[in-house]
Amino acid sequence: MTPSHNGKLFIETVGCQMNMLDSELVVGALRKDGYSLTDDIREADTVLFNTCSVREHAEHKIYSALGRLKYSKLSRPNQVIGVLGCMAQKDQELVFQRAPHVDMVVGTGQLAEVPKLIDAARERRERSLAVSLDRKEGSRAEVSDSFQSYDPLREPEMRPTPHQAFVRIMIGCDKFCTYCVVPMTRGPEQSRPPKDILHEVKVLADQGVKEVTLLGQTVNSYKVKQDGKLFRLSDLLELIHDVEGILRLKFVTNFPKDMTDDLLQAVRDLPKCSQYLHVPAQSGCNEMLKRMKRGYTIEDYREMFGRIRSTMPGASVSSDFIVGFCGETDEAHQKSLDLIRECRFKNSFIFKYSPRPGTKANELLLDDVPEEVKRQRNQEMLALQNQISAEDNAAFIGRQVEILVEGPSKSEVKRGDSGAVGGPVQLTGRTLCDRIVVFDGNPRLAGSMTTVSVEDCTPTTLIGSIVTQQIQHGSSPLLPILA
Questions:
Q1: Is residue 253 reached through a cis peptide bond, with omega within 30 degrees of 0 on the bond before it?
Q2: What CA–CA distance (Å, rounded) separates 198 from 243?
Q3: How far apart (Å, rounded) are the C-alpha atoms in residues 322 and 313?
Q4: Residues 6 or more apart in contact with residue 291 via CB below 8 angstroms
Q5: Sorting pLDDT into bands at 50, 70 and 90, what band is 126?
Q6: What is d(CA 276, CA 249) in angstroms, rounded to the nearest whole number?
Q7: Dihedral angle computed from the Cα positions of residues 442, 389, 280 and 287, in that order, rounded to the nearest 10 degrees
Q8: For residue 190, what is the enclosing H or E element?
Q9: Which of 4, 13, 75, 401 lies in disulfide reach of 23, CB 3.0 to 4.6 Å?
Q10: What secondary structure does DSSP assign to 225-259, as a single string?
Q11: Cα–Cα distance between 83 and 74 in angstroms, integer?
Q12: Comparing C-alpha atoms, which of 118, 233, 257 is closest to residue 175?
C-alpha cells in the first residue's frame, strides 16, 4: 500500500444526480484504500473534478478551477489532479492541452480504474487517458462494453443527506436529441439486472437510507430480461417496494414517449412511490421539437399529461425547457409559455441554449437567437413558472401534509450552530408529491415521517409547523408527542 492511501482527497462535482452518484462510488472506493475527505482543496494530495458537458457554463467552471491549480504542485509535488466524467469523455486530450498539470482524464465508463490511475500518477508520474469508445468506433456491443457501470462500496458521507441515496438502474442513452451530448459521453443505453438493484437497495436500507431515487438518463425506458421475465420500471418498483426500512421511492428522468400506463398505475398503487414525475417537454412548439429530434409532438405530450392527470389527479409534474434553440421564433416561445400555463408544472428547469461540440445541432443548425433574446425569454418563462408555482403552493395553506424529514434546511446549515443547543431548528422535508416543506422541529426527526400544518408559502417552499399528535398511554390522559 502506498503512502498516498493515507492522503487527503478533495472532490468537486458539477452536473446531474448521476454525477453525484458517480462521485459517491469513486469516493467509496478511495475511502476503502484509506483516503480521507477534505473540504479544503489546499490541503488535498488528490484533487478530482467530476464534470458535466450538458451546458457550456459547467465546463467553463471546471477549466477555471483547473487554472487556479496551475502552480499548486510547486508546494505539493506529490499532488495528483484528475478530471472525471462527461467532460473528460468528450474533451479527452484537449483537457491536457488546456491544463498540462492534469495527471489523469477518466471517462464515465472507466471510473472503477480511478484508484489505480492515481497510484500510477503518483508513483511513476504517468499521465493517463482512460475513456470509452466513440459511438462510431465499434459495434454497439463493443461500445457498450467500453461504458461499464460499476458498483463499489457506497459512501454515505457523499449523499445529499444520510437518509437519501441514488441508485443507478441504467446507464447511457439512445435518444440522440440534437442538442445533447449524453449519448456520446455516457454511451449506449444499458439496463442493470433487477437482482443487482434489489441487492443495492437492501444494502442502502441497512445503512439507514429511507428514500431511494432511481436514476437513468431516460429512466422509464428501463427494460431488461431476468430469469425469462421482462422487467420494466413498473416491475422494478414492485420488486424493491417492500424492502424493509425504505419509506419512499422516486425515479428521474422520464421520457414522454415511454410514459406507459403500467408505470402510472404502479406509482398510483404502490404507497411508497412518490407521486411526482419529472417529464421534460423542452419546447411547446412542434417545429422546435422536430429540430431537437425529441421523437414526439406537443399533441403526444398533452395526451401523456392527460393520462397522468386521470390516473393520479394529485400527482405533481415538473419539466425542463430550452429557450433560444436554433430557429426559435417569438411564436414558438409563446407556445412553450402556453404549455406551462396549461400543465401548471410544479416547477420547471429552464436553460438557455448553448451549442455543444459533438452534437447534431452544433453541426447542422445555426445558433441564430441573440443572447439578449435568450436572456429575455429565460426571464419571462421563469417569471411565469414562479407565478404558477406560488399560486399552486398557496392552495396548500391550511392543509396538513405528511412529509419525509430530510434534516436541517439550507438556511439552518448556513446559520451553523447559532441556535440554542438542543433546541428546535428549521428542518426541511418533502411531501409525497415532492413539495419542499420547512418547519421548526427536533433534528432527531431526520429520516422519519411526520405531519406538518402548512401556514405560508413561497414559489418554491411550503412553510408550516409540526402537528402534535395525541396518543393514549394506558389509563393516563392523552399526551402530545412533542417534536
A1: yes
A2: 8
A3: 27
A4: 178, 325, 326, 327, 361, 365
A5: confident
A6: 10
A7: -170
A8: strand 190-191
A9: 13
A10: EETTEEEEHHHHHHHHTT-TT--EEEEE---GGG-
A11: 19
A12: 257
**pLDDT tens, residue by residue, 291-343:** 999 999 999 999 999 999 999 999 999 999 999 999 999 999 999 999 999 99
Supply the DSSP string of 124-173, one letter for each residue. H---EEE-PPPTTSS-HHHHHHHS--------GGGSSSTTEEEEE-EE--
Name the pTM for this structure: 0.85
Domain with CATH 3.30.750.200 in the chain: 278-394
Tell me, what amino acid is at 375? R
- Grid coordinates 444499458 are at which residue? 190
Q: 215 forms bridges with which residues in the sheet?
A: 168, 252
Residue indicated by cell numbers 400555463: 341
Residues making up the chain, counted from first to last: 483
Question: Given 3.30.420.40, 1.25.40.10, 3.30.750.210, 1.10.10.1320, which CATH number is that of 159-274?
Answer: 3.30.750.210
pLDDT classification of 3: cutoffs 50, 70, 90: very low
Residue at grid coordinates 480521507: 36
Q: How many helices (H) and strands (E) does the chain have?
A: 17, 23
CATH superfamily, region 400-471: Nucleic acid-binding proteins (2.40.50.140)
Whether 377 and 330 have beta carbons less than 8 Å apart is answered as: no
